[in-house]
Amino acid sequence: MFAVVRTGGKQYRVAAGDKIVVEKLDGEAGSSISLSDVLLAGEGSELQSVEGLLVSAEIIAQAKADKIVVFKKRRRQNYRRKNGHRQQHTILRITAIGDHKAEKKADKPTTDATGAEAPAAQA
C-alpha cells in the first residue's frame, strides 16, 4: 500500500518501511509521529478513501543538509557579500499506513565459500 502525504509544503509518495527526508519536525530521535495530511492512498492502481487515514512514522534522526553558499557580487563596485545556510531536516521511517504495517525483513542465512549453508554460531 502507498500514500501521498504533505508535510513542510512538499508532497511525498511513501510506503510502509520507506525512509524519507522532510523539513524539520518537532520530536526526538526514536519518537513516533503521525502524518495526518494524506492526499492519496491506494494499492496498485486502485485508490482508497483517505478520510481519517493516518500515516505513522518514526523519527530516525534530526540532521542538517549540506551547506549552501550565497555569494553576491556587483562587478567594479567593490561589493561582495558571502553568506551560508544549512537547512535543518528530519529523517523519518514510515512504520504504517492506516492499518498496513511495515514487514520486518527476515535475516538471511549465512553461507560459506562453497555455497552451502553455514551452521548457526553457538553462543
From TrEMBL:
GO terms under cellular component: ribosome
Please name the InterPro entries in this protein's record. bL21-like (IPR028909), bL21-like_sf (IPR036164), Ribosomal_bL21 (IPR001787)
Give UniProt keywords alphabetically. Ribonucleoprotein, Ribosomal protein, RNA-binding, rRNA-binding
- SUPFAM superfamilies named among the record's database cross-references: L21p-like
Q: Where is the composition biased (Basic and acidic residues)?
A: 98-110
- Coiled-coil residue windows: none
Q: Does the keyword Ribonucleoprotein apply?
A: yes
A Pfam family of this chain: Ribosomal_L21p
Region annotation (Disordered) maps to 78-123
Taxonomically, the superkingdom here is: Bacteria
Q: Where is the composition biased (Basic residues)?
A: 78-88
Question: Record's family?
Answer: Belongs to the bacterial ribosomal protein bL21 family.
Q: What does this protein do?
A: This protein binds to 23S rRNA in the presence of protein L20.
Q: How does it assemble?
A: Part of the 50S ribosomal subunit. Contacts protein L20.
In Swiss-Prot or TrEMBL terms, this protein is called Large ribosomal subunit protein bL21
- Point out the gene that encodes the protein: rplU
